Amino acid sequence: LKKELIFSEKMNIASIISASVAHEIRNPLTSVRGFIQLLTQTELNPDKKQMYGKICLEEIDRAEQIINDYLSLAKPYPEILEELDIGEEIQYIYNVLKSVANLTGVEVEIKYDINLLVLGDRKKLRQSIINIAKNGLEAMRDKRGVLKIEAYKRNNEVILSISDTGIGMTNDQVSRLGMPYYSNKDKGTGLGMMVSFSLIKGMLGKINVKSELGKGTVFDISFPLLKI
Ligand code: ADP
Ligand code: MG
């Protein structure tokens, strides 16, 4: 009986992970598609062309990395921990998101202090924040709104805050966030938050969600501040 239980648990983890891979590979594919569309505009200046090309390459690399990351989610493995400047990461995420956002009439605003250093895995941080931000954009699909990504210091922590002015959630919905397959979307898989939450926890981050129906949602993520 015990063996069977272990086996079925393993199966479950395996199926969750393979579904997650498919889901998360779609994020970089969608943004690469968007940038290639922009690249086919003939009136584009060379600087922009170069930047869009660079982002495409980075996103394709990210897609490849995501596959590796998901495969390693199931087992303990040595993390690639480095000193991350949260401001730099916000800037990168902004570049990835803004063209997608502009197409839907959403403004993306960023604001961050200097020297917000944390210890973490760069790709995982980017991935987890992009998952949360994309949900914010999707929550504003039918109305114009603002997505804000901000970061600041609070005591010995770095707070990374992602807020939207979208449809919001009930307390019940907020409490379900992070459960595998929990989704209210037609084409949602309900895996983005599960992945984000587990990656953030893996970097010793804590997540606090405040949401109000019809008003919007704030995700406050705190990481231990790395002192220089
Ligand atoms: P998916 O986006 O595929 O549905 P997620 O795990 O990313 O799966 O999100 C789960 C659910 O949580 C979403 O379907 C949505 O109902 C809700 N949700 C997450 N973020 C937000 C947000 N910023 N505003 C409103 N609802 C949200
Ligand atoms: Mg999602």
From TrEMBL:
It catalyses: ATP + protein L-histidine = ADP + protein N-phospho-L-histidine. Residues 20-227 form the Histidine kinase domain. GO terms for molecular function: ATP binding; phosphorelay sensor kinase activity. It is an enzyme of class 2 (transferase). Its EC number is 2.7.13.3. The keyword ATP-binding applies. Its main location: membrane. It comes from the Bacteria. Keywords: ATP-binding, Cell membrane, Kinase, Membrane, Nucleotide-binding, Phosphoprotein, Transferase, Transmembrane, Transmembrane helix, Two-component regulatory system. It is a multi-pass membrane protein. One of its GO terms (cellular component) is plasma membrane. It is found in: Cell membrane. GO terms for biological process: cell wall organization. Coiled coil: none annotated. The keyword Disulfide bond does not apply. This is histidine kinase. It comes from Paenibacillus foliorum. The chain holds residues 192 to 419 of 419 of the full protein.
